[in-house]
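Hi R.,

Here's the input for the nicotinamide-adenine-dinucleotide complex you asked about:
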Amino acid sequence: MENIKKAIELIKDANNIVAFTGAGASTESGIPDFRTSTNSAKEASKEYPFEVLLSHSFFRENTDVFYDFYRKNMMFEGAKPNDGHKALAYLESLGKLTAVITQNIDGLHQLAGSKNVIELHGSTYRNYCVDCGKRFELSYITNSKVITPKCDQCGGIVRPDVVLYEEYLEEKNLEKATNYIRHAEVMLVVGTSLVVYPAAGLLNYYQGNKLILINKSATTFDTSASLLINGNAGEVLKAISSQI
Ligand code: NAD
Ligand code: ZN
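And here is the predicted structure with nicotinamide-adenine-dinucleotide in place:
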């Protein structure tokens, strides 16, 4: 494809690439996104929209319902990085890519070997007790016999360290992400519908003219892209990185 060739040229010349990824970067690892696939997440959202189901107040008031959804649709302990995650880690190892900013909570960028990852929405791998703050690994949630895991120290509810609707993104992360994007030479946007704010708004800080957007379906940012590549993130990124 012509645009893949152009992307290869842009990336060959660049030394400060910043990637911005969303759920579409992980669908090829078997983790469904929320908006485009027909899956149980979509099914559940007919009863409660995501904005409700995944909100702070819903978590407090309907913790078991939240955890039921979360366990079925957001916890993927055995998932493996795909070619897209690996390609980004490879570009970092070459010194070309400076940061991966992700909306994903699946830890797959790090598993692929990426070192500098900014997790805007937290991670399912980190969990903590809302009462005493004790921290727990993902396996503690997986192994819990009850749907809502309880702290073994004080009995409080254990929650994932992920950002829910009605909650703020960590200021430190936002600042770091903004800084990387502001100074990026090439912006590589992968697998995100760009409808979740404030994360999507970060792209407005990009000042360059080399925005490569790789996504399966149309997004509202398509017209801002210098290069639009409609395809599977893993396949496209592999095709690009194998030529670098
Ligand atoms: P989204 O579900 O809104 O959009 C995903 C986009 O990726 C869609 O536009 C879709 O067409 C595209 N896509 C799907 N498969 C693709 C592929 N193989 N290659 C290229 N594009 C592909 O996701 P979002 O924009 O990240 O926002 C959803 C929110 O839900 C985020 O905040 C995220 O934290 C959370 N979420 C995370 C995960 C995860 O951690 N893997 C999974 C689902 C949802
Ligand atoms: Zn506790």
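One thing worth noting: The beta strands are 17-21, 97-102, 117-119, 122-129, 135-136, 158-162, 186-190, 211-215, 227-230.

Cheers,
M.
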